[in-house]
């Protein structure tokens, strides 16, 4: 290359940087309901897009709460998208965040009577995750109900 002009390698690096910037802007999109691209991928049952978002987004973005204070974890539990729940937990999202009713993802799993989601939220999936998995089983929603209360009200002895 001539003096003052970028080399092909420099042009490629600049192109990659522009692509990364566009990707970040796309991933940081918020709908009128406060949903991120990940919220929308879960709502519309598009796991491949959800997995791409989980892989690319920092944990802080994965924990964004929409206008109903639902995180992507809340939605994936509610919609019983087990692999998405697992991917979010492995990425290290905070499982104790509460929605507008004070429910954590575990409260929702109990309400749904989803044994698989309860297990994902309460049993360590990996060695690294053992410390993070401990759920506060005394945490109450805004009605004063713990997860055990919800299970008892549902009559579910398995959970």
UniProtKB/TrEMBL annotation:
Q: Where are the ANK repeats?
A: 68-100, 101-133
Q: Does the keyword Transcription regulation apply?
A: no
GO BP terms: cellular response to tumor necrosis factor
Any one annotated GO CC term: cytosol
What keywords sit in the KW lines? ANK repeat, Repeat
A GO term, aspect molecular function: NF-kappaB binding
Question: Has keyword Nucleus?
Answer: no
Pfam families per UniProt = Ank_2 (PF12796)
Task: Enumerate the PANTHER family for this protein.
Answer: NF-KAPPA-B INHIBITOR ALPHA, NFKB INHIBITOR EPSILON
Name of the protein described by the UniProt record? Uncharacterized protein
Provenance organism: Micrurus lemniscatus lemniscatus
